[in-house]
Amino acid sequence: MPGTRIGEKALTCLLYLSALIIIGILLAVVGYIVYKGLAMINLDFIMQAPRRAGKEGGISSTIVGTLYLTVLSLAIAAPLGVGTAIHLEEYAQKESYFAYLVTLTAETLAAIPSIIYGLFGFVFFVIYLKLGWSIWSGSLTLAIMVWPTITRTAQEAILSVPREYRENSLALGASKWQTIRKIVIPAAIPGIVTGMILALGRAIGETAAVLLTAGTSLGMPLSPADPARSMSVHLYMLAMEGLSMERAFGTAFLIIILLLFINYLANRSMSFLSHNGG
Predict the structure, then answer these.
(1) In this structure, are residues 33 and 190 in contact, taking their beta carbons and an 8 Å threshold?
(2) How far apart are CA 257 and CA 251, in angstroms?
(3) 160 and 188 in contact (C-beta within 8 Å)?
(4) What are the pLDDT digits (tens) for 207-219?
(5) How far apart are CA 63 and CA 233, in angstroms?
(6) What is the pTM of this model?
(7) What letter would DSSP give residue 49?
(8) What are the angstrom distances between the C-alpha of 70 and each of 179, 200, 238, 269?
(9) What is the CA radius of gyration of the chain?
(10) What is the SS3 string spanning 203-226?
(11) 150/136 Cα distance (integer angstroms)
């Protein structure tokens, strides 16, 4: 009917307009940061350590601190998240109270604001466990933050593995764990890796939780027991205290490039790893 076709075209135009608006906002934000920050990007800015509270020098120690925090937090959260997903989807009874409690916990943790994680990490890790402002405190806090993301994406990846794979493996005499290890996990690898990459992106961009747990030290961290300043915290300190807006935009430019690259990897990992997973 003519009226139906007109309604469908109007809805299609509305959807295209919504997509264009989102793309326009992204381009505006990225373009403004690139315009303001590109002038600061050079080898000295990347390789030199900050001086005079960040007013001079570069951001080398913040890059190392960011790598320390994100890699260590992912190393802690990934086994826990994937292990939780395997238990929920392969071992736990779907209607059991325990499975419901774990799922509810993951969903609740995913909705908690990052500042709450920061306060918890400060009280529990920094003060109660006496880890102090350190990479350990920041990484453990970030691990709790990104654990729900890894768990939920790993669950979806495991659910996407056809039931026939499991049944055929068990019919051939494989044990439950052999089936999970040799059949289910390899087939779910693309989705699991995608979740890890997305969790990594969130950890890199986190500010409040890291500020309260890892500290704001500009020194080069040499071990997980040392305090560290991440790139996002460095950006916050430079901008909010008015130390150097030029260096703040330069740091923001590098963070955006890094996050865009991570999101690109997340979108591409499914196709890159599908051959190994399937």
Answers:
(1) no
(2) 10
(3) yes
(4) 889 999 998 888 8
(5) 11
(6) 0.86
(7) P
(8) 32, 6, 21, 19
(9) 22
(10) HHHCCHHHHHHCCCCCCCCCCCCC
(11) 20
pLDDT over 70, % of the chain: 95
Buried b (16+ CB within 10 A) or exposed e, 94-128: eeeeebeebbeebeebeeeebeebbbbbbebbbee
Q: Do 140 and 214 contact (CB within 8 A), yes or no?
A: no
pLDDT digits (tens, 9 = 90+) for 80-129: 999 999 998 888 877 778 888 888 888 888 888 889 999 999 999 999 99
Write the pLDDT tens digit of every residue in 62-78: 999 999 999 999 999 99
Rounded Cα–Cα distance for residues 267 and 259 (Å): 12
How many CB atoms within 10 Å of residue 30? 14
Question: CA 35, CA 252: separation in Å to the nearest integer?
Answer: 11
Identify the three-state secondary structure at position 262: helix
Q: How many residues does the chain have?
A: 278
**Which amino acid is residue 15, in one-letter code?**
L
Distance (Å, rounded) from C-alpha 275 to C-alpha 278? 5
In the structure encoding, which two tokens stand for residue 177, read together?
A: 């764990």
Q: Give the position of tokens 């290890």.
A: 181
Residue 117 to residue 26: CA distance in whole angstroms: 28
